[in-house]
Amino acid sequence: MVPEKRPQFDAGQDTERSAGDSAGETGETGADTSTYTRRINFDERRLPLTLALTLLVAMALPFLSPEKLSLGPKWLLVVLLGIFLIATLVAGPELVKGRATVLRAMAIGVVVVLVVKDSWSTANLLIDLIKGGPETNNPTVLLITGGVVWVANNIVFAMLYWELDSGGPIERARRKVRYPDLAFPGQLTPDIVPPGWRPVFIDYLYLGFTNALAFSPTDVMPLAHWAKLTMALQSFISVAILSLVVARAVNILT
Questions:
Q1: What is the pTM of this model?
Q2: I need a labelling partner for 158 at 20 to 30 A (CA). Which of 3, 127, 208, 214 fits?
Q3: How many angstroms separate the CA atoms of 243 and 237, rounded?
Q4: Using CA atoms, how far apart are residues 118 and 23, in angstroms rounded to an integer?
């Protein structure tokens, strides 16, 4: 008998797969599967713990970098991110549907602010690395500053991927995405993940850091044009920061 063919990209991961099949293949009961699906949807509809911790790190990073690399008062970013955190927590999963537009607008606003801030920091750091600056003359300060800018960039790109992929987190939680912008292993091979699996913020954070370290896609494949261009830009920025910081540090030490 010819086995039934599955769609190659089914981000819903066959949520209609019967509980009996799932129990036969994985040993999980139908109730376990339902609980897992609800947990995934819940994590995407409200503020995930990983995202909250990541935003807290983003608030702290500017205070570790020189004043020259900050665009505007450092406390302003803390206030903006704090408002977004509180608004998302107050909304809760049961209120997201009615306030989805507002929450998405706030999320995009936060991403835009982070993009502008980190673009300024990255540009100024690269200029100082090439022309020389106060933070590039001390190897300890240089490595800390370069590390802060590099981590901040990866957080920004992770949030970009999370917010732009297939209409954003709320949209992904509401429906199956047959043709995702970013194809995760669980979407390429639905049989290796539980039914109802969807990528959540930590998956996009992992994507952001692995793309910056490998300078190319690792296990997540960009399918949409914006995804390919964004991942290419992130790789280029990561190469520029790491290579110039390391080269400058070696030059100072020798």
A1: 0.76
A2: 127
A3: 10
A4: 47
